[in-house]
Amino acid sequence: MKRFFWLIVFPLLAACQVNHKNIAHMENRFFKILTPAQWQNFQSERVFLGSELDQQDGFIHLSLQSQWNRIWQKFFNADECYLIEIDGSSLNSQILKIEANRPGGEVYPHYYGNILLSSVIAHQHLTK
């Protein structure tokens, strides 16, 4: 029974995660949408520990350039937010993973650490 379990589960797990070495084939810039309070705190503390959802999930949810606008429209109800652009080369590649949101789903960057303010290469004020 255990062997059967792993024959089914292992391919599903593999489908949900792309090896961190493949990140170089993706983009080297990542994006994070922050509320004004989160952006202000990030600037004053000089480190981002993650949003409440990030901390609950155990990683910081990032997006690729092609994804951030859709994420902003779908998940952020605030009239204003900040789009933070992060230099991927400044992140520890051992804890940066490109993972699917579900088996066979779209892949997103997840960072299993904190982000330093020095990693931010640009920011943009967003309003709806």
Structure description:
With 128 residues, the chain is an alpha+beta fold. It has a single domain (2-127), classed as Protein of unknown function DUF952 (ADP-ribosylation fold). The protein is 30% helix and 31% strand. The chain has four helices and nine strands; from the N terminus they run H-E-E-H-E-H-E-H-E-E-E-E-E. It has helices at 2-16, 36-45, 52-57, 68-75, and strands spanning 17-18, 29-34, 47-48, 60-61, 80-87, 96-100, 107-111, 115-116, 120-127. A four-stranded antiparallel β-sheet has the order 1-6-7-4. Strands 2-5-9 form a three-stranded antiparallel β-sheet. A hairpin with a 6-residue loop joins strand 6 (96-100) and strand 7 (107-111). The radius of gyration is 16 Å and the shape is globular.
In short:
This protein is of the alpha+beta class and 128 residues long.
The proportion of strand residues reads: 25-35%
Biggest β-sheet strands, sense, barrel: 4 strands, antiparallel
Task: Report the radius of gyration as a whole number of Å.
Answer: 16 Å
Total domains, how many? 1
CATH topology-level fold name: ADP-ribosylation fold
Q: What is the 3D form?
A: globular
Walk me through the topology.
Blueprint: H1 2-16, E1 17-18, E2 29-34, H2 36-45, E3 47-48, H3 52-57, E4 60-61, H4 68-75, E5 80-87, E6 96-100, E7 107-111, E8 115-116, E9 120-127
Antiparallel strand pairs: 1-6, 2-5, 3-8, 4-7, 5-9, 6-7
